[in-house]
Design a protein that fits this description.
The structure is a homodimer.
Chain A: H1 7-14, H2 18-25, H3 33-45, H4 52-59, E1 64-69, H5 75-90, E2 94-99, H6 104-115, E3 121-124, H7 128-133, H8 137-144, E4 149-152, E5 162-166, H9 168-181, E6 187-192, H10 197-212, E7 222-225, H11 234-240, E8 245-248, H12 251-263, E9 273-277, H13 281-285, E10 291-294, H14 297-313, E11 325-328, E12 331-333
Parallel strand pairs in A: 1-2, 1-3, 3-4, 4-5, 5-11, 6-7, 6-8, 8-9, 9-10
Antiparallel strand pairs in A: 10-12
Helix pairs in contact in A: 1-2, 2-3, 5-14, 9-10
The first copy, chain A, binds a DNA duplex through helix 2 and helix 4.
DNA sequence: TATTAACACGAAAACGGTTTCGCTATTTTC
DNA sequence: GAAAATAGCGAAACCGTTTTCGTGTTAATA
């Protein structure tokens, strides 16, 4: 087992000082061509690589970014993560992921673990519990320490930081509008407990579209389900109400609906149109294929990483921080579950 | 912006030495009750937390583990990751994830980035390209440096290290066997280019089951598709061959098959039985619901993390390393695409 | 009372780098 | 040829911890 070689070893071996070795390897102009060549050759030969930890301690830069997400076995979050990871890697950053599992406590613990020097900044989507409790002190503490933070998707107004969100309300409006354009009158909304910022935004868009078309809003047509995949209750909802279209805030609810609707002997899209959120694997392989709104998670992750890294690398200029909120434009992927 | 407080600050403020502060906070018996109380109270008041980087540098322990996987937007890998992350977190470790995207080069680069002090050990599944090239020097280098490594799912015999694998051959045997028990005679195998270790293991099991039941193997019934989701070629394969059952090495191929089969006017499972691999979201929501082999990714990740952390924390005893290969038992989840 | 042991703490080295500063020897400038 | 500039390198501080070792004070022992 050959241990990693350090500056000290090289210095001893070549009978120069550690400073000289360090400078030579960083191509400093202080060092002569000759010694530089000699040292660099030796370093290459023995495959010298600087110890990340030591460098981090010295420069107070870890080149790590911390990502805290509520769930990892989840299409949208994984695509966002992929976007983050790609951009980060291209810019020399590594990504530490923690999963809050929708738990406030785990979110807090994870942040605290990482906030003590392990990372240069955070990217996160709030846990469900956190949005419910509205307790954001852990976020405040972190930002007050000067650690950059970017929130995406599940955000809050109570924290001043960069944000990346989807135009949830608008795309829900657009989706609802397109259902109305198909002649649908009784459009159901399948959503979650609406302490989720995204769910309530989507509901807003839904309501606005109906109102603008002077369709009175029937609160019976709005079904709120718990966030987990507990999908019971959809069936009785469907049989109880005379529905001709469904807008679902996620893929699972939508697919499940389609199954039930078909079992009831109704045809999609002839009798009922369905639009979901999240352009995941289910939407592509369902029967019929689901019309859905693509959230462009990759893009969202990329933008989040970009914002964060800019903040990290410019944090020398303390000129009264200015925060931006980037809006990612969702698009509706038209497939077979709608007429248009 | 209040910067983080250090031992030095506490020492200055309380007019003691840094060593005393350090010892007091670590509850050393060298320090008197009085001073300990004083220092601990002060530390709590100012919310002192030791700097992870400095601690890492000192102890040569980062409490980070590096995970390198081929893909993250992929059900199986995310479940494994969840298993890893949970176990790791419970034991005070954080997880740095890198995605190789099936690329050999990215795998190498990622390993090198992390191997210079950032992590205490690796958990990885080999990139497709790596399995194709059979070039494992980057793994060798890492293990020779004494960095513990655990390989899962996509493994190789050429590296001596801990491994966690599925009983792929056996479960494929079992699945094939159960199809034969249904009376199926012409069982197709949908697989990938078989440089993937898992694919070839599964093929082995498939062949063994047929042989044992004296069903001659028709090579025409084995369709090899590229690993990406390029699903063309399945249709012509299905129409060209007279098939009564399908074993697919993944979920996507299986679901796609089911769609095509149904379009051809055949019934599942009456005319054709289908068994897939990966108990993902698709299997649960397809029509009919897919019988599939559950790989228990969570368990696999947990075991991998357990093996790794044990190696990390016991690496003081250099008593001629002994490596184990843990086998996770897959189970067949019986749903609607098979008769039994 | 002299010797030893226990106690409580500080100085300093170490982890592995980067960087400032100072020193010597050579080269340039006038 | 003397003064000044420059080239090339090393010593040492520093990042924030942990840990070994030494030291002065007090308490226990003979």
């Amino acid at each position: 087992m050959k241990r990693k070689i350090t500056l000290k070893h090289i210095a001893r071996e070549l009978e120069v000082s550690i400073s000289t070795v360090s400078k030579a390897l960083n191509n400093s102009s202080e060092i002569s061509r000759d010694t530089k060549d000699k040292i660099q050759a030796f370093a290459k030969l023995y495959n010298y690589k600087p110890n990340n930890i030591a460098v981090s301690l010295k420069n107070k830069r870890t080149k790590n970014i911390g990502v805290i997400i509520p769930d990892i076995v989840h299409h949208f979050f994984t695509t966002v993560f992929r976007g983050i990871e790609q951009y980060a890697n291209q810019h020399g950053y590594n990504v530490i992921v923690c999963v809050s599992d929708e738990s406030f406590d785990r979110e807090v613990i994870n942040m605290e673990m990482l906030a003590n020097g392990s990372i240069d900044g955070f990217i996160m989507a709030l846990a469900g519990e956190t949005q419910l409790k509205k307790d954001f002190n852990h976020l405040k503490e972190v930002t007050e320490q000067g650690i950059p933070l970017v929130l995406f998707d599940r955000v809050t107004d109570e924290i001043r930081c960069d944000k990346v969100v989807l135009n949830d309300a608008e795309i829900a409006y657009e989706a609802t509008d397109s259902l109305i354009a198909e002649g649908r009158k009784r459009i159901a909304l399948l959503t979650t407990d609406n302490f989720f910022s995204v769910s309530s935004s989507r509901e807003l868009g839904y309501r606005k579209a109906l109102e603008e078309h002077h369709i009175s809003i029937d609160e019976q047509l709005i079904l709120r389900l718990p966030y987990n995949e507990d999908v019971n209750g959809i069936e009785s909802f469907l049989v109880a109400n005379n529905i001709d279209a469904i807008l679902s805030v996620n893929e699972i609810f939508a697919i499940h609906c389609m199954g039930l609707v078909q079992k009831m002997g109704l045809k999609i899209p002839e009798d009922i149109s369905v639009i979901g959120f999240t352009d995941g694997i289910l939407s592509k392989y369902s029967e019929p294929k689901l019309t859905t709104v693509a959230q462009h998670g990759d893009k969202m992750g990329e933008v989040a990483a970009k914002l964060l890294i800019e903040k990290i690398e410019n944090d020398f200029d303390e000129e009264e921080e200015v925060f931006s909120t980037e809006v990612i434009s969702a698009t509706i992927i038209r497939r077979e579950s709608t007429i248009n």
